[in-house]
Amino acid sequence: MSPKPTIPAILAASLCLMLAASAMGQPADSRIFAERAQKTFDLARKNYMADTNSTTAARELARASFESADLATNDMRRAEFARSGIAVCRHWLAHLPNSAAGHYYLAMNLGKLAEAEAPSLAAYRLVHEVEREFKLAAELDVHFDHAGPARTLGELYFQAPGWPLSVGSKHKAREWLERAAALAPEYPENQLNLAEAQLKWRQQKEFETTLTNLAAIWPAAKTNFIGPAWEANWLDWNARRAALQTEFSKTFKRAS
Fold this sequence. Notes:
Order of helices and strands: HHHHHHHHHHH
Helix content: over 70%
CATH topology of the largest domain: Serine Threonine Protein Phosphatase 5, Tetratricopeptide repeat
Distance between the termini: 39 Å
Number of helices: 11
Low-confidence stretches: 1-14, 16-28
Mean pLDDT: 88
Structural class: mainly alpha
Number of domains: 2
Number of strands: 0
CATH class of the largest domain: Mainly Alpha
CATH architecture of the largest domain: Alpha Horseshoe
């Protein structure tokens, strides 16, 4: 009989799900994407070290740190990349405390560090820091990264256990997921996240509407989000959309 998961392990798992949904998906053959991410990270680090006061260089390294952590094959490497991103963001925010991007990428990298350090009390405590940083990013610029602060807050509240274990909340999840889809409806991730939540909550009419919206934006999205940087996303998005369509038929049409 397997031991019962500890609270930190549960929360870190929920963070893993939330962050995977907010960024690049994990494809079946992730080695190619991991190699690309490493090259991007190395170049971003070189550019940043040449000018540590450059906000552009800081942003690129913070993002590259998260993406490399997301694709890391072991927790040691994941933590190394995440800590790199955290250090960059903290230095960045020390000079520009009102940077939405700085708070956003700090939260993303903190989440990856929590995933790497789970199960532990440190991972458990990071959940609230992740929430706080995403909230700050939303207050400063909720439109950043295709409504990224709203999207990631929605996923955090959707995936995390509820009170008293953690910050999970159906009401908050619905509020932020709907907000992300309204703010950046053209971005597939926002519609997919909302549809997955509506399916879990058995909101048939809302789920149908979101699937219709997803179908409407899909052709344009395939021409707008193109190139090697988006290949992993499309592997993830296509698989999730197909799963949602299958689940719709199984869950709702069979019941009607």
